[in-house]
């Protein structure tokens, strides 16, 4: 299993990186990204610590972790600059917390995200055509999520991704250890978003390609 969206207690998750990695390894994960919530106030605190965790733990674990960040509720005008700063610090994977219908995310967040140097637009809610065209052009992935609330629009996100040729990934958005996914559950979430059976393996391969590129 590859899961590219997980939280530790550096933001609002329950565990420190070492325990989250160990528990993920224990249920069969091979690769994971820690993408704690950041804005302009805390990215420079969190990102270097996740890089240290990856540097020290990857070599002595049965799981490999990509240090990342999830830009969360940053005003759209600040997203591009923040992504550049996070990248400059050495984060491997950047997620943006998209316009989920379960939170009052500022309108314009999805568009600002796809115009920035990021990897995954998470739970983009009722994402529009214009944003999709740019995401497709710029090779930005859309996330199908197992997270309650955010998953309410998985069907729309999958339909738009298929219409515009945007690559999808499936992530847990883990906050506690019970949120982690087995491959079987991940498959069922994808089928539940009306993704045809013969495209499911391709979605797992998208996550694999990201890991290969970034590790
Ligand atoms: Zn959170
Ligand atoms: Zn998240």
Keywords:
alpha/beta, eight-stranded parallel beta sheet, 42% helix, binds zinc ion
What's the assembly state of these chains?
single chain
Number of helices: 8
Instruction: Specify the helix fraction band.
Output: 40-55%
What series of H and E elements makes up the topology?
Answer: EHEEHEHEHEHEHEHH
Distance between the termini: 16 Å
Uncertain ranges: none
* Shape label: globular
Q: Tell me the structural class.
A: alpha/beta
Largest sheet: 8 strands, parallel
* Count of extended strands: 8
Mean of pLDDT: 98
Gyration radius from CA atoms, angstroms: 16 Å
The proportion of strand residues reads: 15-25%
Are any ligands bound, and if so which?
Answer: zinc ion
What does this 3D model show about the protein?
The chain has 215 residues and is α/β, with parallel strands linked by helices. It has helices spanning 17-26, 43-57, 76-89, 109-114, 129-138, 154-164, 183-192, 200-214, and strands at residues 2-6, 31-34, 37-38, 64-71, 93-97, 120-122, 141-145, 168-171. Strands 1, 2, 3, 4, 5, 6, 7 and 8 form an eight-stranded parallel β-sheet that branches. Strand 6, helix 5 and strand 7 form a beta-alpha-beta unit. The radius of gyration is 16 Å and the shape is globular. It binds zinc ion (ZN) (2 copies). Residues 7, 12, 37, 175 line the site of one zinc ion.
């Amino acid at each position: 299993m590859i899961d590219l969206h997980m939280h530790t207690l550096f933001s609002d998750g329950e565990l420190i990186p070492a325990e989250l990695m160990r528990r993920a390894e224990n249920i069969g994960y091979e690769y994971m990204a820690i993408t704690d919530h950041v804005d302009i106030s805390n990215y420079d605190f969190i990102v270097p610590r996740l890089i240290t965790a990856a540097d020290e733990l990857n070599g002595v674990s049965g799981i490999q972790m990509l240090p990342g960040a999830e830009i969360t509720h940053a005003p759209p005008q600040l997203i591009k600059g923040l992504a550049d700063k996070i990248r400059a610090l050495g984060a491997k994977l950047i997620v943006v917390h998209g316009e989920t219908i379960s939170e009052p995310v500022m309108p314009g967040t999805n568009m600002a995200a796809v115009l920035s140097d990021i990897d995954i637009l998470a739970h983009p809610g009722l994402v529009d055509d214009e944003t999709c065209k740019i995401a497709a052009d710029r090779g930005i992935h859309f996330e199908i999520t197992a997270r309650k609330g955010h998953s309410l629009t998985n069907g729309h996100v999958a339909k738009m991704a298929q219409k515009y040729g945007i690559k999808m990934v499936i992530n847990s958005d883990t906050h506690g250890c019970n949120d982690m996914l087995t491959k079987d559950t991940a498959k069922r979430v994808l089928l539940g978003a009306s993704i045809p059976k013969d495209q499911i393996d391709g979605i797992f391969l998208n996550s694999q390609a990201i890991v290969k590129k970034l590790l």
